[in-house]
Amino acid sequence: MLLDAGLSTCVVLLSAASASAPVCAPGTRLDTSMFSPATAQASSIVELAWLVFGIAAGIFLVVETLIIVAVVRYRRRRQETAARSSGGMGQEPAQVYGAGPIELAWTVVPLILVFVLFLVSARSIHELQRTEPPPGSLPVTVVGHQWWWEFRYPEYGVVTANELHLPVMTADAPRPVALDLRSADVVHSFWVPRLAGKTDVVPNHPNLTWFDPSTEGEYWGQCAEYCGTQHANMRIRVVVESREAFEEWVRLQQAPAVEDESVRRGRELFLSLACVSCHTVAGTEANGTFGPDLTHLMSRARIGAGVAANTPENLKSWVRDPQVLKPGCNMPAMKLSDEEVDLVVEYLLTLQ
Ligand code: CUA
After folding, report:
1. Beta strand pairing status for 308-309 and 148-153?
2. What is the pTM for the complete model shown?
3. How far is residue 325's CA from residue 307's CA, in Å, rounded to a whole number?
4. Is pLDDT at 49 greater than 80 in this prediction?
5. Which one of 148, 232, 326, 343 is CB 3.0 to 4.6 Å from 266, fit for a cystine?
6. Which atom of ligand 1 is least distant from the CA of 231?
7. Contact 218, 238 (CB under 8 A)
């Protein structure tokens, strides 16, 4: 099957089920629930959410109970209706004018609640929002595009797309991550619920978000601000891995593209097409920046910003006509013959 239709159901299933249930295919664990935080920053948000929820639930219970009691206890009774219709008067309830203690209670208690909510929110905002990256953090520039994410690691000279690799933070390597968020077109929002809060990605206005990647694993996120047709397929895959695995990944990403002689025809065809004006393959004349960098395309698990698994069949479908997997996306069908599609895909498959 070309389309990974199970993907969206997976998200729902996993948010409801336990955090570790392997409902999806191996390698695509899609727990996107903010209620299973994996960083101190996400935990702080969840704690605040539960506190606010608790207070709101308490208010709801008190108000609903009072309403139900009043409705049941003071409803118009049958004999009252009968008395009224026969010209008699129902019983008038006791009339109360002013009640000092009650009025004081319903003024002071909400005041205290609002003040508590204000203080805890201010504390969380102070903890989480920064104008400067935390000292010693790993800087990554994130660029939101319609409809994919570009990740740049200025320290390593690495550019990749849709999959963010991060070294796990340990006691002897306490390195938070600082994301410099930018947009190439419209407003997007970067949200990986288990790692950090939502941060808007605004054109001409860099935003900063940061977190401590303290638990190894795969985390999924999603653009959280409507940004056009394919907003829903603007996913983020974050891999938090051991320092060694991360360094190995960096070495791979820094290497120029593999030049495999057996796919020379495919490479020449690719380089002769308009592909090169949107995509980069380091070490070739393909140096476009409008679309994702393809230098190490095959190191990524999915294509089209999460829309499908990165398999030869899906790549073929994508190259033949990207509008099949991702209708409305900005890559046009190149109108290649079947043979040309095969040649280009054979070449792409060598880009490890
Ligand atoms: Cu990007 Cu929604």
Report:
1. unpaired
2. 0.82
3. 7
4. yes
5. 343
6. 2
7. yes
